[in-house]
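An instance as discussed:

___
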Amino acid sequence: MKYWLVKTEPDECSIDTIANAGSEGIAWDGVRNYQARNFLQEMAKGDQVFIYHSSCAKVGIVGLAEVTEEAFVDPLQFEPESAYYDPKSVPDNPRWSAVRLQFVRKFKQPLALKELKTLPAMAENPLVQKGSRLSVVPFQASEYQAVLALVD
C-alpha cells in the first residue's frame, strides 16, 4: 500500500463532495501536470489519500480517502466545453489520467501546513518544501503515520 495527498479547491471538490458521493466515490480528474499525472498512474486500489483543501479560508489536510479504481483515461480531456479539455490529446493516445476515490473520514479540523512543517517525519516531504505546488504528492508510511497521529 502507498500513501498520497491530493490538493483540491473545496469550491470545486471538497471532502464533503467526496463523502456525499457514497460508495460510488468520485473520479479524481482534471490533473494537468505531467508529474502529478504520473503519480496518479502509480496509485493502486486500496492506497490511502489525504485530501488537502487549498485556496480557501481553512487550508490544510481535511480528511482521508481511498483509491477504489486505478488510473483510467480522464474523459474531460476530450470534452471541448470542459475547463480540462486538451485539444492535443486524442482517444487513441490520451495524455491524462484519473483515479476513483472513496471517502474514508473527515478530520475534526484541518491540519494546517504550518503544523505539518513542525513534524520531523515530514521534513523531506514535497508538501512542506518551499516552492512545491504539485496537486498530487507521495507520502512515506512514516509521514502518513505522523499525520494520522495528529488527528487520532
Q: What stands out?
A: The longest strand covers residues 97-111. DSSP finds four helices and six strands in the chain. Strands lie at 3-8, 26-28, 48-53, 60-73, 97-111, 136-139.
